Amino acid sequence: PGITVEVAAELDSTNETLLTRARAGDRSACLLVAEHQRQGRGRQGRRWISAPGDSLTFSVGVPYAPRQWAGLSLAVGVAVAEALAPEVQIKWPNDLWCAGRGPAGEGRKLGGILIETVGTAPSTRQAVVGIGLNVRSPDGGPAGWPDPRNRPAGLEELLPGIDAAEVLRRVAPAVVRALHEFEREGFAAFRARFEARDLLRGRTVQTTEPEAPEGVALGVDDEGALLVHTAAGVRTVAVGEVSVRPC
Ligand code: BTN
Question: Where is the BPL/LPL catalytic domain (predicted)?
Fold first, then answer.
């Protein structure tokens, strides 16, 4: 099935544009790239800020609502990581990290995935998958980055000379293929591929569960939910955020 690719010079947010169209009943398959977003959104109400050319920002409309959210996000993450470089890892459930580039050899964030949905009835629900990838490491603006250890990485550190257009050429077909594959086969088609790039495995994570507040990440189940070995036993974390202890 075909997909239309649209490039906008400037808009508020590629996710917002596709969500607005979906709310108006548009179910056509579209990949929308923005050279610049005025109001890029991150997860949990955060903003995604980038200067034109410094990151690749695009969204794809998915004309179905997945049963497993973490699974969809991981499937897209796997597709993006595989299209880029062996060092690109996935931090469950939505982040792309670059291994071993921090000041103490730890990873640094390269980009993220934001999935938003429209509609409640199964026949009309739609999802928009938004992806932001740093081509250059963001400098944090005039005030700089508050803590340089948290400064995100840029793909040009892994792939010298790469620009946003080349990142799009590599990543877009991989993401579209992954969305079809996920629709047919679910997360099963991606589980082993995810495990090869699982940043959290073996690391101590904080969960949002009061009676099992921390544990060691063991990997994911068949649906893409995170498995955490806590003092209260193995817990499944399906939604919400985990944070990772620096190690
Ligand atoms: C995150 O790391 O919190 C997710 C960031 C997702 C950013 C992308 S950029 C393209 C799409 N449009 C948006 O407004 N956000 C997503």
Answer: 1-183
